[in-house]
Write the structure tokens for this entry.
Amino acid sequence: MSELRHKSIGAVMLLTIAVCLVFGANAWKSSLKIKQIKIDGNRIVGENEILQLTQVQLNALLYKVDLTSIQRNVMSHHYIKNAVVERNLPNSIHIQVVERIPIAMVNRSETLYLDEEGVVLPRSISHRLFDLPMISGISESEPLAPGFIIKQPDVMEALQLLALMKTVNRPMYHNISEVQVRNGGDIVVYSAEGGIPIIFGREDIPSKFVRLETFWNDVVRARGTQYLQYVDLRYQDQIVTRWIPEPSATKSL
């Protein structure tokens, strides 16, 4: 009987200790204060700009802040595509952001940017100026404004082409001055070097780009652009070009 009583007392003591530890831990957590807000992943949007968006004050109680609200506030910025917000014990909030990267520009009443998903980005919010190819010919019925997502199919194909160039061959991407869309017609790219029109047509963008890249590296780099009038990629498995006769070739004739 005595042994059973000792076991019961021991169990009660263990339970009491466990309850005290839980209450103690909760009291400790509830007293923690925010001493630091750490931000990672931002290159375009300034850290102070993101800090203001959080609407979190230092020395606020760590477990009183609403992480979902912070995430929503940060993602209200046009250049923030995604944000992950976490509490880091004992005293900090960590925010990991993914930014929208401009890939082309559009001239309307003001200069606007587009990312590869067709999201319209303002120029004024970003503190950086971007040297980007221009997309022309976007339908006037597209009400371009920051946050708007373009639905025009040929614009989306043009953005797909630019994103591919930027990923696979950055020098070629930077050699594009303009991409012209024609309201459902052919997509035409103009090179910055020589202003050569490159007719892409529509669809099958990746394979056309591979053909262009090979042709540009193997032929155009060797001959130069001064005598090249246009490149046409609309025909399957071939490239159609037109060259002006070189002066030496004309004399020999």
About this structure: The longest strand covers residues 80-88.
